[in-house]
Amino acid sequence: MMILGVDGGGTSCRAALATAQSQIIGRAKAGSANIRTDLNGACESIMVAVGQAFAAAGQDPAHIPDTPVVLGLAGANIGTYAAELRARLPFRRCLIESDVLIALEGAIGAGDGAIGILGTGSHYLARQSGEIRRLGGWGFLLGDQGSGARIGRDLLEEALLAHDGIAPHTSLLDAVLAAHGNDPQAIVEFTKSAQPRDFGTFAPMVFDYLERGDPAADKIVERAVSAVEASLDALALANATPRCLLGGLATLVGPRLPPKHRERLVPPLQDALGGAVSMAARLFGLERSLSDGKQGLMQP
Amino acid sequence: MMILGVDGGGTSCRAALATAQSQIIGRAKAGSANIRTDLNGACESIMVAVGQAFAAAGQDPAHIPDTPVVLGLAGANIGTYAAELRARLPFRRCLIESDVLIALEGAIGAGDGAIGILGTGSHYLARQSGEIRRLGGWGFLLGDQGSGARIGRDLLEEALLAHDGIAPHTSLLDAVLAAHGNDPQAIVEFTKSAQPRDFGTFAPMVFDYLERGDPAADKIVERAVSAVEASLDALALANATPRCLLGGLATLVGPRLPPKHRERLVPPLQDALGGAVSMAARLFGLERSLSDGKQGLMQP
Question: Which Gene3D superfamilies match (chains A, B) (predicted)?
Fold first, then answer.
């Protein structure tokens, strides 16, 4: 018996075919699988990736409908997107979860634990005694206080305050102003078309200046780190529960957290695709020993 | 001799015809005059308003080209918009200034003073010893920390933090969450199409709950008031220089400023249109006594 794991989002869709013991025997990658904006395209990307994973493993694609699959897809926790997708897919045993949940499974395994994904956005997921709690991820305009986009936004705000003589000038802020011709209007114009990831491109610069002792960088990073701390606090984790930071800012923020969280940080066991495979193995590979309640999850 | 004042922006364009002693004898209002996005439309709105002001005063429109005018127009301080507009207008003596400068002239007259315009956005203008200093007005995403839009944004951020268990719940935040069906995603969706003025519609609610002692309202207003204080500080006004707050938040923020600014607050002498008229009287009505240097301002 084989199992499938799929990890899909707005950028790409990856699939892995594995043995029932989670040993991956074929991998593939296809285009974006955004179930919120393009359900047909997402369906196609998923099936392309799955077909290529079968081919990479030298397996007969006739077995695809019979292969149990866990799909982790961005947006799967919102509205009816997951149900609509499931109706179009050929799999007889199929579980569709959010991409964040398979990232959690990949990072900390099947037990209790929490992840903080600190990338362009920032969000958190915890599992304790089988109960899932999610927070953050509302976008940098109103949230994502521990994200690269928010750090970039904070930097531009601070630069404008320095320009106006309201905040003190620092090397970092002067560099940002100089990069925009010392014209505040140029900064404002940038933001009119900038996407969150464009704001996020400033984050490495902030951490770079932090190393050199820049006070504005210190203020901005301190605010982001405090926000990550507050979010982890709000998950109300048991003291011993492992927590894992993922995303581009993970290694920058982690060492700056207070000991209560820093000392509980663990490296991820595997990535989100590995998490989907492990979850499939856990749910479908051992299905004979599962209770009826758990089988309800599978939505055949 | 008569003089003209015009106050134009994205919403409407007002004109006033006055005697050389600034006594208004005819008023009119026309459509928007946004010189940044629609120069032809702005030109038309200005001439409609001016023509109707002449008609309201019972004056012959043949005198329009000979009547000196000060136009205060949003965006006139940016780029070449003002120069392009001037080339299309029929006036022989015409000064085009930003709408903020005529608001300053209206509020505090021709002498030293400062205004803080606290509306959907927030910006500041000071004149000291004839020198103009402007700050703020960069938009609520990166600035406008004393504005209605920023207060609305801050409120929504705080509501999401309360939903996630990161900030304490208060009556205000619960009311905001309830108004969105206790669904954070509904708040995020709102922001995708919301304009700054839509964010600003939350400001009265924040001040309403402040009166009832709501801690979240207190935090949000305290932050806005501190920002206004910091901006006034940055203008580096002489101790005795009068300062005047304008816009929808003026009467809400003013009493909460520290004494150094609160005790120097003055009510506006007149509105921006009156400021344009006064400036026209000052520059053109008395032109025989003006120095050559000042005449250079008139750009005939």
Answer: 3.30.420.40
Any idea which fold B2-109+269-298 has?
A: Nucleotidyltransferase; domain 5 (3.30.420)
Tokens read off for A173: 């802020």
Judge whether B180 is closer than 8 Å to chain A, CB to CB: no
Radius of gyration of chain A (CA): 22
Q: Is A194 on the interface with B (CB under 8 A)?
A: no
Residues of A in contact with B141 (CB under 8 A): 141, 153, 191
- Its ipTM equals 0.85
Q: Which two tokens stand for residue A168?
A: 């003190």
- Where would I find the H helices in chain A? 39-56, 81-88, 99-108, 148-163, 171-179, 184-193, 196-200, 203-211, 215-234, 250-253, 259-262, 272-280, 292-295
- Same CATH topology for A2-109+269-298 and A136-262: the answer is yes
Name the nearest CA neighbour of B216 among B183, B181, B251, B169: B169
Whose tokens are 């905001």? That residue is B176
Helix (H, G, I), strand (E, B) or coil at A94: strand
Per-residue pLDDT of chain A (300 residues; tens, 9 = 90+): 899 999 998 788 999 999 988 899 999 999 988 888 888 999 999 999 999 999 999 999 999 999 999 999 987 877 788 888 999 999 999 999 988 899 999 999 989 999 999 998 999 999 999 899 999 989 999 999 999 999 999 999 999 999 999 999 999 999 999 999 999 999 999 998 898 989 999 999 999 999 999 999 999 999 999 999 999 999 999 999 999 999 999 999 999 999 999 999 999 999 999 999 999 998 887 654 444 344 434 443
Topology classification of domain B136-262: Nucleotidyltransferase; domain 5 (3.30.420)
Q: Do B164 and A139 touch (CB under 8 A)?
A: no
- Dist. CA B265–CA B47, nearest whole Å: 36
Which residues of chain B make contact with A156, given a CB cutoff of 8 A? 142
B211-269 pLDDT, tens digit each? 999 999 999 999 999 999 999 999 999 999 999 999 999 999 999 999 999 999 999 99
DSSP state of B256: G
Backbone phi, psi, residue B3, to 5°: -135, 160
Residues of chain B contacting residue A153, judged by C-beta atoms under 8 Å apart: 141-142
User: Looking at residue B265, what DSSP letter applies?
Assistant: B
> CA of A136: how far to CAs of A100, A115, A121, A146, A180, in Å?
12, 12, 9, 9, 31
Q: What angle do the packed helices A81-88 and A39-56 form, to 10 degrees?
A: 50
- Using an 8 Å Cβ cutoff, are A266 and A242 in contact? yes
The nearest CA of chain A is from the CA of B166 a distance in Å of: 5
* Token pair listed for B44: 């038309």
Single out the residue of B95, B1, B12, B99 nearest to residue B48, CA to CA: B12
Euclidean distance between CA atoms B147 and B123, whole angstroms: 9
Domain coordinates of chain B in residue numbers?
Answer: 2-109+269-298, 136-262
